[in-house]
Amino acid sequence: MRNYKVLWCDDEHENFQAIKDEAILQDVQLIGYTNSDEGGDELRQNFRDYDAVLLDGLFFKQKDQKGSDLKQTAFGEIAKILTELKANGNLMPWFIYSGQPSFVKDSNEIVEIFKDAAFANGKVFDKSKDQDFSELLEEIKKAADANPIRQIKINNPEIFNIFDTGLLLEETENELLEVFNELEKTTDIDTKAVLTKMRSIQEKVFIKLESINVLPKGLSFNQKNNHLSGNKSHKSNYTATSIEYQTAEIETLNKWIYITCGRYIHELKEQHFGGYMISVYSLKSMFYGLLEILLWFDKTYNDYK
Protein backbone atom coordinates (compact mmCIF):
# COMPACT_ATOMS: atom_id res chain seq x y z
CA MET A 1 0.00 0.00 0.00
CA ARG A 2 1.36 3.41 -0.96
CA ASN A 3 1.50 6.13 1.68
CA TYR A 4 -0.99 8.98 1.32
CA LYS A 5 0.96 12.15 0.58
CA VAL A 6 -0.73 15.35 1.81
CA LEU A 7 0.30 18.98 1.24
CA TRP A 8 -0.33 20.83 4.52
CA CYS A 9 -0.51 24.63 4.70
CA ASP A 10 -0.18 25.72 8.33
CA ASP A 11 2.00 28.51 9.76
CA GLU A 12 2.82 26.30 12.78
CA HIS A 13 3.27 22.94 11.07
CA GLU A 14 6.87 22.73 12.29
CA ASN A 15 5.57 22.69 15.88
CA PHE A 16 3.28 19.74 15.21
CA GLN A 17 5.76 16.91 14.79
CA ALA A 18 3.61 14.73 17.04
CA ILE A 19 0.73 15.13 14.61
CA LYS A 20 2.99 14.26 11.68
CA ASP A 21 4.29 11.19 13.51
CA GLU A 22 0.77 10.02 14.34
CA ALA A 23 -0.26 10.50 10.71
CA ILE A 24 2.71 8.44 9.48
CA LEU A 25 1.55 5.57 11.70
CA GLN A 26 -1.70 5.76 9.71
CA ASP A 27 0.20 5.78 6.36
CA VAL A 28 -0.38 9.51 5.84
CA GLN A 29 2.64 11.74 5.15
CA LEU A 30 2.04 15.44 5.95
CA ILE A 31 4.34 17.80 4.02
CA GLY A 32 4.12 21.27 5.52
CA TYR A 33 4.31 24.80 4.15
CA THR A 34 3.88 27.91 6.30
CA ASN A 35 2.66 30.16 3.49
CA SER A 36 0.48 30.18 0.38
CA ASP A 37 3.20 31.46 -1.95
CA GLU A 38 5.42 28.39 -1.50
CA GLY A 39 2.57 25.95 -0.92
CA GLY A 40 0.71 27.27 -3.94
CA ASP A 41 3.74 26.97 -6.20
CA GLU A 42 4.28 23.39 -5.04
CA LEU A 43 0.61 22.56 -5.61
CA ARG A 44 0.55 24.02 -9.12
CA GLN A 45 3.75 22.32 -10.24
CA ASN A 46 3.48 18.95 -8.49
CA PHE A 47 -0.20 18.33 -7.76
CA ARG A 48 0.11 14.80 -9.16
CA ASP A 49 2.50 13.98 -6.30
CA TYR A 50 -0.19 14.55 -3.67
CA ASP A 51 -3.29 12.67 -2.62
CA ALA A 52 -4.91 15.56 -0.75
CA VAL A 53 -4.44 19.10 0.60
CA LEU A 54 -4.89 20.17 4.22
CA LEU A 55 -5.49 23.85 5.07
CA ASP A 56 -5.30 25.70 8.35
CA GLY A 57 -7.79 28.54 8.61
CA LEU A 58 -5.15 31.25 8.95
CA PHE A 59 -1.57 31.02 7.76
CA PHE A 60 1.04 33.22 6.12
CA LYS A 61 0.81 34.45 2.56
CA GLN A 62 4.54 35.02 2.07
CA LYS A 63 7.62 33.14 3.22
CA ASP A 64 9.17 35.99 5.24
CA GLN A 65 6.07 36.73 7.33
CA LYS A 66 6.13 35.90 11.04
CA GLY A 67 4.20 36.15 14.27
CA SER A 68 0.58 37.25 13.98
CA ASP A 69 0.82 38.34 10.34
CA LEU A 70 -1.73 35.71 9.34
CA LYS A 71 -4.04 36.13 6.38
CA GLN A 72 -7.40 34.70 5.38
CA THR A 73 -6.33 35.53 1.84
CA ALA A 74 -3.68 32.77 2.08
CA PHE A 75 -6.49 30.24 2.56
CA GLY A 76 -8.31 31.78 -0.39
CA GLU A 77 -5.22 31.61 -2.61
CA ILE A 78 -4.85 27.85 -2.13
CA ALA A 79 -8.59 27.26 -2.47
CA LYS A 80 -8.50 29.20 -5.75
CA ILE A 81 -5.68 26.99 -7.09
CA LEU A 82 -7.65 23.88 -6.11
CA THR A 83 -10.67 25.26 -7.98
CA GLU A 84 -8.53 25.90 -11.07
CA LEU A 85 -7.14 22.37 -10.95
CA LYS A 86 -10.66 20.98 -10.72
CA ALA A 87 -11.75 23.06 -13.73
CA ASN A 88 -8.91 21.43 -15.69
CA GLY A 89 -10.04 17.94 -14.73
CA ASN A 90 -7.68 17.48 -11.78
CA LEU A 91 -9.84 16.95 -8.72
CA MET A 92 -7.74 17.22 -5.56
CA PRO A 93 -9.38 16.30 -2.22
CA TRP A 94 -8.91 19.08 0.33
CA PHE A 95 -9.82 19.56 3.96
CA ILE A 96 -9.81 22.28 6.62
CA TYR A 97 -7.90 21.56 9.85
CA SER A 98 -7.75 24.55 12.16
CA GLY A 99 -7.38 25.65 15.74
CA GLN A 100 -8.70 29.19 15.28
CA PRO A 101 -12.15 29.70 16.84
CA SER A 102 -13.08 31.94 13.89
CA PHE A 103 -12.78 28.89 11.65
CA VAL A 104 -13.79 26.06 13.96
CA LYS A 105 -16.72 27.52 15.90
CA ASP A 106 -17.77 30.79 14.32
CA SER A 107 -19.33 31.51 10.96
CA ASN A 108 -16.55 32.56 8.60
CA GLU A 109 -17.13 34.25 5.26
CA ILE A 110 -14.20 32.71 3.43
CA VAL A 111 -15.06 29.22 4.66
CA GLU A 112 -18.64 29.71 3.49
CA ILE A 113 -17.39 30.73 0.04
CA PHE A 114 -15.33 27.59 -0.47
CA LYS A 115 -17.11 25.10 1.81
CA ASP A 116 -19.10 23.49 -0.99
CA ALA A 117 -15.88 22.74 -2.85
CA ALA A 118 -14.20 21.15 0.19
CA PHE A 119 -14.46 17.48 1.08
CA ALA A 120 -16.05 15.86 4.17
CA ASN A 121 -19.06 18.08 3.43
CA GLY A 122 -17.01 21.17 4.22
CA LYS A 123 -16.48 20.22 7.88
CA VAL A 124 -13.79 22.18 9.71
CA PHE A 125 -11.76 19.64 11.71
CA ASP A 126 -10.72 20.94 15.12
CA LYS A 127 -7.05 20.64 16.15
CA SER A 128 -8.03 20.51 19.81
CA LYS A 129 -10.02 17.29 19.38
CA ASP A 130 -8.20 13.96 18.96
CA GLN A 131 -11.34 12.41 17.51
CA ASP A 132 -11.44 15.05 14.79
CA PHE A 133 -7.88 14.18 13.72
CA SER A 134 -8.71 10.46 13.52
CA GLU A 135 -11.80 11.26 11.48
CA LEU A 136 -9.77 13.60 9.25
CA LEU A 137 -7.24 10.87 8.42
CA GLU A 138 -10.05 8.49 7.50
CA GLU A 139 -11.68 11.11 5.28
CA ILE A 140 -8.35 11.79 3.55
CA LYS A 141 -7.89 8.09 2.80
CA LYS A 142 -11.45 7.63 1.60
CA ALA A 143 -11.27 10.58 -0.79
CA ALA A 144 -7.78 9.69 -2.02
CA ASP A 145 -8.74 6.08 -2.72
CA ALA A 146 -11.40 7.32 -5.13
CA ASN A 147 -8.79 9.23 -7.15
CA PRO A 148 -8.12 7.49 -10.53
CA ILE A 149 -4.43 8.47 -10.46
CA ARG A 150 -3.90 6.84 -7.08
CA GLN A 151 -5.75 3.75 -8.28
CA ILE A 152 -3.42 3.48 -11.29
CA LYS A 153 -0.39 3.70 -9.00
CA ILE A 154 -1.77 1.18 -6.51
CA ASN A 155 -2.61 -1.28 -9.28
CA ASN A 156 0.84 -1.00 -10.88
CA PRO A 157 3.24 -0.74 -7.92
CA GLU A 158 6.29 -2.23 -9.65
CA ILE A 159 6.01 0.33 -12.45
CA PHE A 160 5.58 3.39 -10.26
CA ASN A 161 8.33 2.30 -7.89
CA ILE A 162 10.64 3.34 -10.74
CA PHE A 163 9.46 6.92 -10.25
CA ASP A 164 9.22 6.75 -6.46
CA THR A 165 12.93 5.92 -6.32
CA GLY A 166 13.79 8.79 -8.68
CA LEU A 167 15.10 6.53 -11.43
CA LEU A 168 12.97 8.37 -13.98
CA LEU A 169 11.81 11.96 -13.64
CA GLU A 170 8.36 13.20 -12.66
CA GLU A 171 7.70 14.55 -16.16
CA THR A 172 8.09 10.99 -17.49
CA GLU A 173 5.72 9.68 -14.81
CA ASN A 174 3.18 12.31 -15.88
CA GLU A 175 3.46 11.18 -19.49
CA LEU A 176 2.85 7.60 -18.40
CA LEU A 177 -0.18 8.57 -16.30
CA GLU A 178 -1.60 10.54 -19.23
CA VAL A 179 -1.35 7.45 -21.45
CA PHE A 180 -3.00 5.31 -18.77
CA ASN A 181 -5.86 7.79 -18.56
CA GLU A 182 -6.21 8.21 -22.31
CA LEU A 183 -6.44 4.47 -22.87
CA GLU A 184 -9.16 4.21 -20.23
CA LYS A 185 -11.48 6.14 -22.53
CA THR A 186 -14.06 4.28 -24.58
CA THR A 187 -14.28 6.93 -27.31
CA ASP A 188 -12.29 9.85 -28.73
CA ILE A 189 -8.87 8.51 -27.79
CA ASP A 190 -6.11 10.92 -28.83
CA THR A 191 -4.06 8.42 -30.84
CA LYS A 192 -1.32 10.87 -31.73
CA ALA A 193 -0.84 11.89 -28.08
CA VAL A 194 -0.61 8.24 -26.99
CA LEU A 195 1.92 7.36 -29.70
CA THR A 196 4.01 10.47 -29.04
CA LYS A 197 4.15 9.92 -25.29
CA MET A 198 5.07 6.24 -25.65
CA ARG A 199 7.96 7.12 -27.96
CA SER A 200 9.02 9.86 -25.55
CA ILE A 201 9.09 7.45 -22.59
CA GLN A 202 11.08 4.92 -24.62
CA GLU A 203 13.62 7.62 -25.50
CA LYS A 204 13.92 8.65 -21.82
CA VAL A 205 14.85 5.03 -21.03
CA PHE A 206 17.61 5.09 -23.63
CA ILE A 207 18.93 8.43 -22.33
CA LYS A 208 19.07 7.07 -18.79
CA LEU A 209 20.98 4.00 -19.99
CA GLU A 210 23.45 6.33 -21.74
CA SER A 211 24.08 8.02 -18.38
CA ILE A 212 25.61 4.80 -16.99
CA ASN A 213 27.35 3.84 -20.25
CA VAL A 214 25.15 0.85 -20.94
CA LEU A 215 24.47 2.65 -24.22
CA PRO A 216 27.04 4.77 -26.07
CA LYS A 217 25.81 8.22 -27.02
CA GLY A 218 25.05 9.27 -30.58
CA LEU A 219 23.70 5.96 -31.89
CA SER A 220 20.71 5.56 -34.18
CA PHE A 221 17.77 3.52 -32.89
CA ASN A 222 18.86 0.38 -34.79
CA GLN A 223 22.37 0.76 -33.40
CA LYS A 224 21.03 1.19 -29.88
CA ASN A 225 18.80 -1.85 -30.13
CA ASN A 226 21.58 -3.96 -31.61
CA HIS A 227 24.05 -2.82 -28.96
CA LEU A 228 21.64 -3.78 -26.17
CA SER A 229 21.37 -7.22 -27.78
CA GLY A 230 25.11 -7.78 -27.81
CA ASN A 231 26.06 -6.37 -31.24
CA LYS A 232 25.22 -9.52 -33.14
CA SER A 233 25.81 -9.54 -36.88
CA HIS A 234 26.21 -11.81 -39.89
CA LYS A 235 29.96 -11.48 -39.46
CA SER A 236 29.78 -12.98 -35.96
CA ASN A 237 27.26 -15.60 -37.08
CA TYR A 238 24.74 -13.66 -34.99
CA THR A 239 26.61 -14.49 -31.81
CA ALA A 240 26.90 -11.71 -29.22
CA THR A 241 30.22 -9.85 -29.32
CA SER A 242 29.48 -7.63 -26.30
CA ILE A 243 27.28 -7.72 -23.20
CA GLU A 244 23.69 -8.78 -23.90
CA TYR A 245 21.58 -6.38 -21.88
CA GLN A 246 18.26 -7.42 -23.38
CA THR A 247 16.64 -10.65 -24.49
CA ALA A 248 15.26 -11.23 -27.97
CA GLU A 249 11.79 -10.53 -26.61
CA ILE A 250 12.72 -7.08 -25.26
CA GLU A 251 14.60 -6.34 -28.49
CA THR A 252 11.42 -7.10 -30.44
CA LEU A 253 9.28 -4.96 -28.11
CA ASN A 254 11.67 -2.02 -28.47
CA LYS A 255 11.68 -2.29 -32.26
CA TRP A 256 7.90 -2.73 -32.46
CA ILE A 257 7.19 0.36 -30.37
CA TYR A 258 9.78 2.52 -32.12
CA ILE A 259 8.74 1.64 -35.66
CA THR A 260 4.98 1.53 -35.13
CA CYS A 261 4.80 4.76 -33.13
CA GLY A 262 7.06 6.51 -35.62
CA ARG A 263 5.06 5.38 -38.64
CA TYR A 264 1.66 6.37 -37.33
CA ILE A 265 2.81 9.65 -35.77
CA HIS A 266 4.01 10.52 -39.27
CA GLU A 267 0.83 9.30 -40.97
CA LEU A 268 -1.38 11.28 -38.60
CA LYS A 269 0.37 14.42 -39.82
CA GLU A 270 -0.88 13.71 -43.33
CA GLN A 271 -4.22 15.48 -43.66
CA HIS A 272 -5.58 13.07 -46.24
CA PHE A 273 -4.06 9.82 -45.00
CA GLY A 274 -6.36 7.11 -46.30
CA GLY A 275 -4.46 3.98 -45.35
CA TYR A 276 -5.07 1.57 -42.49
CA MET A 277 -4.96 3.19 -39.06
CA ILE A 278 -4.19 1.06 -36.01
CA SER A 279 -6.97 0.57 -33.49
CA VAL A 280 -7.11 0.93 -29.72
CA TYR A 281 -6.20 -2.76 -29.44
CA SER A 282 -2.78 -2.05 -30.94
CA LEU A 283 -2.35 1.03 -28.78
CA LYS A 284 -3.06 -0.94 -25.61
CA SER A 285 -0.89 -3.82 -26.76
CA MET A 286 2.06 -1.50 -27.38
CA PHE A 287 1.46 0.22 -24.06
CA TYR A 288 1.70 -3.06 -22.16
CA GLY A 289 4.86 -3.75 -24.14
CA LEU A 290 6.21 -0.41 -22.95
CA LEU A 291 5.43 -1.34 -19.34
CA GLU A 292 7.43 -4.54 -19.84
CA ILE A 293 10.32 -2.46 -21.17
CA LEU A 294 10.15 -0.28 -18.06
CA LEU A 295 10.47 -3.35 -15.82
CA TRP A 296 13.42 -4.57 -17.91
CA PHE A 297 14.96 -1.10 -17.71
CA ASP A 298 14.60 -0.98 -13.91
CA LYS A 299 16.45 -4.27 -13.51
CA THR A 300 19.10 -3.47 -16.11
CA TYR A 301 19.87 -0.02 -14.70
CA ASN A 302 20.26 -1.34 -11.16
CA ASP A 303 22.41 -4.27 -12.33
CA TYR A 304 24.86 -2.10 -14.27
CA LYS A 305 24.84 1.35 -12.62
What would you note in describing this structure?
Keywords: Membrane, Transmembrane, Transmembrane helix. The chain crosses the membrane at residues 273-297. With 305 residues, the chain is α/β, with parallel strands linked by helices. It folds into 2 domains: 4-146, Rossmann fold (3-Layer(aba) Sandwich), CATH 3.40.50.2300; 150-304. Helix content is 55%, strand content 8%. The chain has 13 helices and 5 strands. It has helices at residues 17-25, 36-46, 72-87, 101-104, 109-114, 130-145, 148-155, 157-164, 170-183, 191-210, 221-228, 248-269, 280-304; strands spanning 4-9, 28-33, 52-55, 94-98, 124-126. The protein has a 5-stranded parallel beta sheet with strand order 2-1-3-4-5, with helices on both faces. α12 (248-269) crosses α13. The mean pLDDT is 89.
Keywords:
13 helices, Rossmann fold, alpha/beta, 5-stranded parallel β-sheet, 305 residues
Number of helices: 13
Strand order, biggest sheet? Answer: 2-1-3-4-5
Write down the overall geometry.
Answer: elongated
Q: What's the count of strands?
A: 5
What is the count of distinct domains? Answer: 2
Poorly predicted segments = none
SS content category: alpha/beta
In short:
The chain contains 13 helices and five strands. It has helices at residues 17-25, 36-46, 72-87, 101-104, 109-114, 130-145, 148-155, 157-164, 170-183, 191-210, 221-228, 248-269, 280-304; strands at 4-9, 28-33, 52-55, 94-98, 124-126. By secondary structure, the chain is an alpha/beta fold.
